[in-house]
Amino acid sequence: MVAHHIAFIVALVIPAACQITQPDTNRASHFYWSEAKSQELDYKSTIASAKELSPKERNDLLAFVLYRFKHPVNAHDEEMFEGISDDQMRKLTAATRIELVDLDGDGKKEIIAQGNGIGPCGATGNCIVLVLRDTDTGWETLLDSRIGKFGGGYEKIRVLDTKNDGFRDIVLASHDSAAERTAIVYRYEEGHYVPHQCYHISWWTFTGGYHRVVS
């Protein structure tokens, strides 16, 4: 009989004060964090390379995101893009990662976009996240993670099964340290996504018990 120690990873998820101004009267007590179910968007699927986009959709999206990058939404956003040339800004726009997801079940997919490279992203891998909808008058922003005094960048994204006003909730989680994240649950209200709940996530590994293998 051979004894093997097992390493357990334990995650602690607690409500946090993240300067969310909306009253939170129905905080989801069942919320839990799953690293396995969250993701960074695929680096191989960008505005420039995504096969799901028509030529017109691609050109319109490139113009829309480039305009957004060139027009910071607050002082922090301006600082992140400071000193980047127009040519590099176009390259960063084209390299923006995207995923098409039908968030409201109408059969037409919205775009979740995540930055790629310094400017849209910080040094720790936290990147601007946008949720965009194609309308008859052009692209519309449903979520911009850097908007607001406390806006910022995020490393991981998860689309939840829960909904509000017909749109699925979205969780954005930042990389705070090797063992810590801040997760914001965004809910759709009155035409756009707003921060709804905030959690501090920390995890640690410990070894305990044993597993017996018959040899």
What separation lies between the terminal Cα atoms?
Answer: 6 Å
- Number of helical segments? 3
Overall mean pLDDT stands at 85
As residue ranges, the low-confidence spans are: 1-11, 21-25, 206-215
Give me the secondary-structure category: mainly beta
Q: Cα-atom Rg, whole angstroms?
A: 19 Å
Strand percentage lies at 35-45%
List the helices and strands in order.
EHHHEEEEEEEE
Shape: globular
Q: Tally of extended strands?
A: 9
What is the strand arrangement across the widest sheet?
Answer: 1-9-8-7-6
Helix content: 10-25%
How can the largest sheet be summarized?
A: 5 strands, antiparallel
Give an account of the 3D structure:
The chain has 215 residues and is mainly beta. The chain has a domain at 35-154. It contains 3 helices and 9 strands. The chain has helices spanning 55-70, 75-81, 86-94, and strands at 2-15, 97-101, 110-114, 129-135, 138-144, 156-164, 167-177, 180-189, 192-213. It has a 5-stranded antiparallel beta sheet with strand order 1-9-8-7-6, with no helix packed on it. Helix 1 (55-70) crosses helix 3 (86-94). Mean pLDDT is 85; it is low at 1-11, 21-25 and 206-215.
